[in-house]
Structure formats: structure tokens, C-alpha cells
Amino acid sequence: xxxxxxxxxxxxxxxxxxxxxxxxxxxxxxxxxxxxxxxxxxxxxxxxxxxxxxxxxxxxxxxxxxxxxxxxxxxxxxxxxxxxxxxxxxxxxxxxxxxxxxxxxxxxxxxxxxxxxxxxx
Length: 121
Known about the structure:
Elements: H1 12-17, H2 25-45, H3 57-70, E1 78-81, E2 84-87, H4 99-105
Antiparallel strand pairs: 1-2
Organism: Actinosynnema mirum (strain ATCC 29888 / DSM 43827 / JCM 3225 / NBRC 14064 / NCIMB 13271 / NRRL B-12336 / IMRU 3971 / 101)
Protein name: Head-to-tail adaptor
């Protein structure tokens, strides 16, 4: 028997809430798959991800999904149409989480504890 899939760290509604463009049904379906993929990447890269996940998780995952949805579908790093050109900010484009985004998913470091000295001035 296989274990159930973990709950995604965001929803399609979280993605939609972070863009002013209305997602098409096709984009919503793709977003659902990308949410599951990004959630799996987050859990793999942050094994100490707390349960429940931090409040930052939906925003982190939605941002990664929107970035992937905006990447050129053919995998090109750059494209030019007339006088307009676009270059992907990440080699390979697609779905990824930045180090800053991963840091937002990690539990806070515990406060230092132990003995210390105060030297009179």
C-alpha cells in the first residue's frame, strides 16, 4: 500500500490571487500540476519543513508556479517578437525555487542558549 500524497503547499486559488491576469482553464490545470511539483521540490530541498507549513508557503509556491507559467513553452531561454524581446532570468526556465524562497520555508533558527559573560566597560 502506498502512502497518500502530501497536501500541496498552495492552491490554484493562491496562484490566481497573485496575478492580475485571469488564468484560462488550461493554465489552471497546468498550475495544479505545477503546484504539486513545486510542493515536492520544496519538501525535498527543505526536509525540515514544519507541519503545518509556514504562512509563507502558499506565496512561495504560487510565485514559482507563476514563473513557470510565464516561461516560454518551448524551453527557449530568450525570444524576440518584433521590437520586444524577453530573456528568462533562470537558465532552463521552468519550475524552480530560489534560495531566498527556500529560506522562507525553513523553520526559524532557535535563539542562542547557554552561558555568557558581560564584561564591565
